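Chain A, query sequence.
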Amino acid sequence: MLHMIGEFLSILLYLFVGIVSLTMAYRNLFSERLLAFHEKASGVEWHQLSAGLQEVVIALMRVSGLGFLIVGVMLIVFPLANYFLHSAFLRYAVPMIAMIYCCGLFLYNYRLHVRTSAETPWKKSLYAVLALIAGLLFSLL
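Chain A, predicted structure.
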């Protein structure tokens, strides 16, 4: 019984982080300009960037969006699949891969916050890491 509760709680946590990741994927994949915290951190408004630099920024945002998309899909599909398949790889490796991405988000968003005083989403990234750790711990029950 305890194992089933742990598995259910881990799936809920992974779904939560996955849905947030998909939201961020959408935001990055379809944005046509810098996000507000990027502008604050850089001290430059979007219209001040050259057309070429705007294209580079949009391309980098699309790449970031693809990362969010991959993590979001992994965290939604594979934990649910594992509920039926019972694979150790799906149970542990998929959340660990997502955690690598989220740890990177936390590290670089926090660094940007410290260096520029911009209100970056570093706390949200940290919450995602903690949710993934909690999900892994619940899956050990």
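The radius of gyration is 17 Å. The chain has one domain: 2-25+63-139.
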